[in-house]
Amino acid sequence: MSTRNSKRLGLGPWALGLLLLSSVLTAQSAQKPDRRVVRVSAERFAFTPSEITVAVGEEIELRVKSDDTSHGFRIVGTETDVAIPKRGQGETVVVFKAPAAGKFEFECSRMCGAGHSYMRGVIVAKESK
Ligand code: CUA
């Protein structure tokens, strides 16, 4: 009986669709970004903003892009040291969470010209109340 066969086959894709739908929903809730996004631009020879205030334990997402040549972004005393591609080539995302109150200096870590060593900034972490 061909009718019965096609009905049985029809169940397959339907069940598969449900499975796919549930995995898509799981992925969405897992990726839901709760953290604050801070856009930083790098340009000879400064970062803007050059001072960023966070709460201790707050996870922030720094999106660093260049307005001219390529630069680097290093947070002193941490593992973070990434390249910032030149203007128009995208941005680099750095996730940072201050473990304690204090100042976390960041600086350019790729030679970009005479004022390279002046490219600095600071993340100020304060106790949240
Ligand atoms: Cu910018 Cu070195």
Overall pLDDT confidence: 84
| CATH fold category name of the largest domain | Immunoglobulin-like
Biggest sheet strand order reads: 3-9-8-5-6
Principal-axes geometry comes out as: globular
What small molecules are bound in this structure?
dinuclear copper ion
CATH superfamily of the largest domain: Cupredoxins -  blue copper proteins
Fraction in helix: 10-25%
Main beta-sheet annotation: 5 strands, mixed
| Spatial extent as radius of gyration | 23 Å
Give the tally of β-strands. 9
- String of helices and strands: HEEEEEEEEE
How would you describe what is shown here?
The chain folds into two domains: 32 residues; 91 residues, Cupredoxins -  blue copper proteins (Immunoglobulin-like), CATH 2.60.40. Strand 1 and strand 2 form a beta hairpin. The chain is globular. The chain has one helix and nine strands; from the N terminus they run H-E-E-E-E-E-E-E-E-E. The protein has 129 residues and is α+β, with helices and mostly antiparallel strands. A five-stranded mixed β-sheet has the order 3-9-8-5-6, with no helix packed on it. The site of dinuclear copper ion (CUA) has 7 residues, from loops.
Task: State the gist of this model.
The protein is α+β, with helices and mostly antiparallel strands and 129 residues long. The protein is 23% helix and 41% strand. Strand 5 and strand 6 (81-84) form a beta hairpin.
Please describe the topology of this protein.
Blueprint: H1 2-31, E1 36-43, E2 46-48, E3 51-55, E4 59-66, E5 71-75, E6 81-84, E7 91-97, E8 102-107, E9 120-126
Parallel strand pairs: 1-4, 3-9
Antiparallel strand pairs: 1-2, 4-7, 5-6, 5-8, 8-9
This protein binds dinuclear copper ion.
